[in-house]
Amino acid sequence: MEEILKRLRNDTPGVSAVALVSNDGLIISSLLPDSIEAERVAAISAALLNQGETSSEDAMIGQMSQITIRAKEGFIVITRAGRDTLLTVFTTTNAKLGLVLFDINTALKELKSHVN
Amino acid sequence: MLSHKTYFDKLIKDIESVDAKSVVALVSEEGFVLSSNSPDEQADAQLAAMASVFMDYGKKIFAIPGVTSDQMNEAVRTNVSVGDRRYVLVTQLAPHTFIIVAGEDKNRISVMMKKTLEYVDATAAMMQKKEIVF
Q: For B30-56, how does the pLDDT look when each residue is reduced to its tens digit (9 = 90+)?
């Protein structure tokens, strides 16, 4: 699992941190720089999942599958990796979002057998 | 395993060598630019959005009943649109991924098409050997 996360972080320009987090906010596996605390990533992921699920339910558009946040200094992309698991990716501003999403999808395919 | 970034960069450089003035982009079927040689983000985003339109149009062409049922079931691989000044070539590289080439030198269309189709076969072979994942 760590190998897949490592590939996502190292091979996709602009990806600064990746973490596999449980729905209830526990880190399963992560590759984070020193400036980012694992607990914080887990808490952000769980909180956004909660918010995303409520919003998609309210909007009647089915189960939430991905949340993208664009901020001044980068993106946060949270993707459902399995029934109880989320893949959280942090990027810098120079990341090409299209390639990041594409590589996340590839990583998810590879992670599928591990998380299910 | 080869990263998408490395592979796309190599592919763009190679296709660009046919016509240095051409815009070459790799786009996903959702309409995101994965990599391109264009410094103009707006221009390559427009090309990305065109991918689905071109492929839908191509599918319609192949939906016209052919002489045999085989022809009707043919999957679209590439689609070229030629205007007064420019041409746009869209080739499906792999599942969910398209190569888009926009150029002005119409004499090079067939070379461009050949080149992109060679990449389709090369990518399929690499996927089989698990050298790249799509």
A: 888 999 998 887 777 788 887 777 777
User: Is the CATH code 3.30.450.30 the one for domain A2-111?
Assistant: yes
To probe the interface with B, which of A102, A105, A108, A112 has the most B CB atoms within 10 Å?
A: A102
- B82-108 burial, b if ≥16 CB within 10 A, otherwise e? eeeeebbbbbbbbeebbbbbbbeeeeb
Task: Look at B1 and A7 and tell me if their CB atoms are within 8 Å.
Answer: yes
Q: Is A109 on the interface with B (CB under 8 A)?
A: yes
Rg (CA), chain B: 15
Task: List strand residue ranges (DSSP E) for chain B, in order.
Answer: 23-28, 33-36, 78-82, 87-94, 97-103
pLDDT for position B69? 67
Write out residues in chain A with pLDDT < 70, as ranges.
116
* Interchain proximity B3–A11, CB inside 8 Å: yes
- Helix or strand or coil: residue A36? coil
Q: Is B5 close to A109, i.e. CB distance below 8 A?
A: no
DSSP state letter for A44: H
Provide the residue ranges of all domains of chain A, joining segments of one domain with +: 2-111
Distance of CA B70 to the CA centre of its chain: 24
Chain B residues in contact with A98 by the CB 8 A cut-off are 27-28, 32-34, 48
Q: ipTM more than 0.85? A: no
- Residue A88, SS3? strand
Contact list, A111 vs chain B (CB under 8 Å):
none
Q: How confident is the model at residue B70 (pLDDT cuts 50, 70, 90)?
A: low
> Which residue do the tokens 């698990």 mark?
B130
How far A65 CA sits from the closest chain B CA (Å)?
Answer: 15
